[in-house]
Amino acid sequence: MDPHGCSTSELGITRKLAITGFTLKEFSQPPHRRLPWHVHNAASICFVVSGSYAERVRSTDRECPPHSMVFKPAFERHADQFGRDGGTCLLMEISPERLTTIEPFAKVTTRPTLAQNARLAGLGHRIYREFTGGDALAPLVVEGLILEVLVEAERAGAAEPTRSRPTWLRQAYDLIHDHCSEALTLSSVAEAVGVHPSHLARTFRQHYHRSIGDCLRRLRIERAARELTDTDVPLAAVGLKSGFFDQSHFSRVFKQQTGLTPAQFRAASRPKRIH
Fold first, then answer.
1. Is CATH 2.60.120.10 the classification given to domain 8-156?
2. pTM of the entire predicted model
3. How confident is the model at residue 199 (pLDDT cuts 50, 70, 90)?
4. H-state helical runs in 7-137
5. Which one of 72, 85, 99, 122 is separated from 183 by 20 to 30 angstroms, measured CA to CA?
6. Which CATH number fits domain 167-269: 1.10.1040.10, 3.40.50.2300, 3.40.50.970, 1.10.10.60?
7. What is the pLDDT of residues 27-38, one digit of tens each?
8. Hey, is 208 helix, strand or coil?
C-alpha cells in the first residue's frame, strides 16, 4: 500500500518506462472508479489518453476530458472519479534533480494546472505511441517530447500583460474566434473594429503573444480537432468546415501544429472502453 493513499493495484498501473529524469506509467481504470485522496512523490504530468475523470484538488473540482494534460507539483493531495467510459492515462513523473533544471522555465510544474489544446493533444499521443511501441531510440524521443509539452503548456498559460486590453481589441479577438473558419483578412478585421491594420497587428501581438494569422490557424486546428474527436465526418469535409482550402492543405497544417495527421489524430482519439 502506498503510504499516501493508493496501492499500485488501485492505481491500475500496467507498464512503466524510466528515462533520464522522468518515469512514465500507464494506468487504466474501469467506469466510475473512485481513487481516494492520494499524492505523487514527484511533480507530474498526466495525459488523458482516453476516457475522462473528475479531480478534486485544493478544494476545487475540475473535469479532465480526453486528450487533456493535468500538471501537479510533488505531494499535491487530490482525489479522482473516473467517468462512464473509465479511462487510460499516461503519468509522467519528473525527478527532483531534473525538476531543478526545468522549473525556472516551466512554472506550470509548480501549481495544479489543467491544459488542453490540439498541439498538446498531439504531443501527448506521440509520447504515448513511443511509450507503447517505440524502438531503441524511443527514450530520447520521449524526453524531447516531454520538454515540448512543458514549453507549449507554459506558453498557453502565459500571463497576459497587466494593462487592460482596448475594447476594440477584445472585439477583434471575438470576431476571429467566432468566424475562424471564414476567409478573414487583417484588413477586414481592422475595418470591422475601426482601426488601422498595422495598429491592429502590432497591438494584437503585444497582448496575445502571437500574430492574428497564427491565432486564426490555431483556432481552425482546435475546431478541426474537436470534429475529428467527436464525429465521423470525412477528413476532407472536416478540413473544409474548419476553413482550409482542401484536404492536402488541411493535413499539412494539422501535422505541422500537432505532429499527427488528421487520420492519426482521429485514430488516437477513439475511446478505449475499460471493463
1. yes
2. 0.81
3. very high
4. 8-11, 96-102, 118-133
5. 122
6. 1.10.10.60
7. 999 999 999 999
8. helix
